[in-house]
Amino acid sequence: MVDFFVQGGGFMWPILIALLFGLAVVGERAYSLVNSSSDTNKFFEDVKSVYDDSGKDKAIEFCESTPGPVASIFLAGLSKMGKQKEEIEKAVQNAGGLEMAFLEKNMIWINSVITIAPMLGFTGTVVGMIKAFEDIKMANDISPAVVAGGISQALLTTAFGLIVAMIMQVSQNFFVSMIDKLILDMEEQSIKIVEYLHCLLYTSDAADEGLG
Q1: Whose CA is closest to 178, among 189, 186, 188, 167?
Q2: pTM across the whole model
């Protein structure tokens, strides 16, 4: 592998840098998305249990201590507890928008590596072919031995550029599927928390009217 890298010429270095940069972003996204994943249905039941047992403040503390986008959405809803349903919905939607942006953070850099790595490889291919023709010109001969070095360089840079792009593409597809699932969970739980808080508000108002 090291021999192939050396034979690929100078353009192998920017391709390697693109790979290392892409892997760093992949590691960051993997860590972030795994930490954002949770059993959202269980979390909803836990929030209800804490709220019913200890009240609003403890439920807010529970959400604050729990990582993940759904916890942030629940926190936004609970913070508006006692307000009109429209205000709760707006707070939950705003929190959901921020969390979606966080989930998709840095994905553009993975896409950039997918685009740039093959371009670097193809540029290395052009340089390698130019070198092959220069060797032919210098030797005044078109034998395979004369052009082998330039053609080898051309093919190696293309191959490495495409391999890097494929690694990044697989990673991107995996992350997109994770993000889609998390967004679907967020939307489902947003509806549930809004309805739950509205139900609590309605029940509280009915109780106050009964006391009155």
Answers
A1: 186
A2: 0.77
